[in-house]
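Hey, sorry to bother you again with one of my protein questions. A protein chain has come my way and I'm curious about its shape. I'm sending you its amino acid sequence along with the backbone structure tokens. I owe you a coffee for this, so here goes:
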Amino acid sequence: MFGSTKSASHPRWVVAAALGAVALLVLSGCGSTKASGSKEPATKSLKLISMVTTGAPFPASVLAGIQKQGKAEGVSINNMNTKFDTSEEATAVQNVIAQKVDGVILMANDGAAATTLVKQLHDAGIPVLAVHTQVGTGKFDEPDPNLVAFVTQSEFDAGKQAGQLAAAALPGGGDIGIVEGSGCCYEAVKDRTDGFKAGAEAAGANFTVVSKQPGKWTADDAQAACQNMVQANPGIKLFYAQSDDMAAGCASALKKAKSTAKVIGVGGSKLGVDDIKAGSIYGTVCYKPEDMGVLAAKTLIDTLRAGKTKADSTFITYTTPAITAGNVGDCTPQW
């Protein structure tokens, strides 16, 4: 069962991916016949652009995967660094349209704002694949119709894994606090929360959410949030932080408060994995952004080479396993 006595925040997003081993989608190769709604198979060399901010470890790892796969495919993929700035992104889109490239891999800075940009590219005849960040504000697993595909992790499944971790960490149930992400992509944060509740309930956990606060995806903000929550609710036995950075900040606050509450994170980052090994975080959910970048590049290249306008599957995810001290070796950090 799940109870809730108060909610101190309005959930919005992330920023924040586990491919155990890359399970790459093999799309149909070039053929001599047209698929329905497709165009003639491409025979020329592809000219692709990625739009990925490089100022943080996670997107930098996504970009590394994109470029790695481009090199393996013999396709040059130049990146436009949009610097976490929506105006930079809008300018980049106009430049891409002028260049008449064959396709774009977009890791949007703001999913809601990116809807217009994707439509502009689509109307200019340039196929767009979104990676990691949702375009639009609808259901996370229903990609914008102007996309070739959306390659990401299932945020609901990741939340579900975190909920099962929480049930294992606190089998007797009790009061818990949630440190939420904030910023863009409300639906992703919502899915991480809903998935957590579903996973915990499926495992038979009897939790009561007594407090929620935004951690803004940073360790410092999460530390302040957990400090406030544990002071107001000293009986909290577990915190679910929706990223490893926030989990680390929360763990620091609990240590200072001499609280024995356990912490669950999401991300599989080096910081999160190191904290699991040190015992300050109970567990996390393993994302692998570089492998996700590989999958994104392969999906777009295979789709274009097949002369199609849509990938065989438009919502493409991978497995995100739960990680604790007992299986921490299964998650080699990629960011």
